[in-house]
Amino acid sequence: MNKILYSPEALNDIDEIWAYINNELQNSAAAQKIVSDTLDTIEKLRDFSELGPPLSSITEFESDYGFLVCGKYIVFYRVMGLDVHIDRVLYGRRNYMSILFGTLHNDDDSE
Description:
Blueprint: E1 3-6, H1 8-24, H2 28-43, E2 65-70, E3 73-80, E4 83-91, H3 96-101
Parallel strand pairs: 1-4
Antiparallel strand pairs: 2-3, 3-4
């Protein structure tokens, strides 16, 4: 069984997802469901660390990231031995390549 480790950025991303849906969209039930579903999907990585495809399968940029799509959000993670590092949880329409790697052209970084 793998150990799930969250980066501070990933924890902040999850908090921001909840806050945006709860406060801006004023839908606390949806906020709870989306965050809960996302965390449940991440938990599957404990048993199946290769569950998500490699990020390089959808881009020409080589990296050691895997990703999982959770509704409108994408979880980016790396497997290191028995540790699964959850690095970011981002809205799917954001320029996640620029956010992850910082050196790429930033077209739209808004939610």
